[in-house]
């Protein structure tokens, strides 16, 4: 029996592990190839104003596609990228690509806030701030048009050092949001320690909000508390009118989900923006 140390503690080697690592090995190879051959892309999912319904921003989401077909979904390849350290290059690529796109839209007179996901290893990797600062300088994007999405887990690991880094990023003029809120382990009272501008309510809450009275109560309480702390609240994964209505009435300021638009290529997103301005 071989004991290997995974990033999340000790794991025991078992037959199904070798299968998993074969799959993960394959994903790693595909990722390395994609990085070297410029086969990664970003799609943009609209964020809409909860009351007025117009697009107020977008989340940039990584895609690993060949001929428009997904080879692997982010939930499959991001964990492999994290475990192999490839996330540092991939995440940097995504950040630069989103900033270049944001800068292009800014130049065309259609500035639109974009958010980019940052995973734990990427955030903790030495030089994250310098890299971010470099990309902002190099692309010339107005930093107030950039938001970084981090989960509670990412913010909690690293303790005070992470809080200081978050503050520095914010001082650079970049917005911060707490992604997948409610799925982590931190208590609600912990929220006041995170210097974030916005909180994204996880899809798991949104899914059940019109089905389950307890979920509705918890979600309502999260929104009320976030608002009292002057944080913006965004709901993710909104798929139905009923969910949208509940969340709007509970005080969500922005929404994101298939009801308003799935992630789409940059040119399609740009057309939607143009259509809205007309
Ligand atoms: P996330 O940041 O929480 O992103 C939201 C995910 O929910 C996206 O999945 C999006 O396509 C999906 N989604 C949006 N609206 C709906 C809806 O109405 N219903 C349902 N069922 N799903 C919806 P996606 O694009 O597969 O990304 C999954 C995760 O992968 C992201 O979760 C994020 O954690 C990670 N990820 C994606 N791109 C990046 C990236 O550039 N860097 C890093 N570090 N992580 C990324
Ligand atoms: Mg996100
Ligand atoms: Mg999320
Ligand atoms: Mg997620």
UniProtKB/TrEMBL annotation:
Q: Where is the EAL domain?
A: 24-277
Indicate what this protein is called per its UniProt record: EAL domain-containing protein
Its taxonomic path starts at: Bacteria, Pseudomonadati, Pseudomonadota, Gammaproteobacteria, Lysobacterales
